[in-house]
């Protein structure tokens, strides 16, 4: 089941950041945050292979993966997207930020755009996220975005779900 049908990859513009498709030219800057099936890329070639799989997942309607771009510098600062659950009308929201951009609000801005798109364009009924219990910055981010803890998972992970209000 495909929740979204686009003739083009969705480009989402916000005040500070935009979400766009990752290009081959971006891969060299993204090696440290390029992952697929929890495996990290070590080379540009591996990052390209992973990105090809990610692009195919999008075409198959199984996920959507954006680069988060600083609107002033036009540099990708991180990635975010929906990676599981789309066939059930829900989405697991995940994100990774390049270390030099930690603590500057980029991820909050990017995730807000992704949440709005998930709810209003994709029609998701549930948005959730999972992280390690030791990942304090991710937990703070999720709580700031109105996620609430819903479960303790295996492997020291915890699950959060977006608490939807009429203000989103």
TrEMBL record:
Superkingdom of the source species: Bacteria
PROSITE patterns reported for this sequence: GNAT (PS51186)
Gene3D superfamilies: 3.40.630.30
Alphabetic keyword roster: Transferase
Domain N-acetyltransferase: 17-167
Molecular function GO labels: protein-N-terminal-alanine acetyltransferase activity
Any one annotated GO CC term: cytoplasm
PANTHER family: GNAT FAMILY, PUTATIVE (AFU_ORTHOLOGUE AFUA_3G00765)-RELATED-RELATED, RIBOSOMAL-PROTEIN-ALANINE ACETYLTRANSFERASE
Name of the protein described by the UniProt record: GNAT family N-acetyltransferase
Species name: Chryseobacterium antibioticum
Lineage of origin: Bacteria, Pseudomonadati, Bacteroidota, Flavobacteriia, Flavobacteriales
């Amino acid at each position: 089941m495909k929740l979204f049908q686009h003739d083009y990859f969705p480009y989402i513009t916000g005040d500070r950041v935009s979400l766009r498709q990752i290009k081959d030219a971006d891969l060299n800057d993204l090696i440290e945050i390029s992952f697929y099936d929890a495996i990290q890329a070590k080379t540009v070639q591996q990052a390209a292979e992973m990105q090809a799989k990610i692009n195919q997942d999008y075409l198959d309607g199984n996920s959507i993966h954006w680069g988060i771009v600083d609107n002033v510098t036009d540099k990708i600062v991180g990635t975010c997207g929906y990676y599981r659950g789309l066939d059930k009308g829900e989405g697991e929201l995940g994100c990774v930020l390049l270390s030099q951009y930690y603590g500057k609000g980029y991820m909050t801005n990017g995730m807000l755009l992704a949440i709005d798109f998930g709810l209003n364009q994709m029609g998701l009924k549930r948005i959730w996220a999972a992280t390690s219990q030791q990942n304090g910055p991710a937990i703070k981010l999720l709580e700031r975005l109105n996620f609430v803890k819903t479960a303790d998972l295996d492997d020291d992970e915890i699950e959060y779900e977006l608490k939807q209000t009429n203000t989103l």
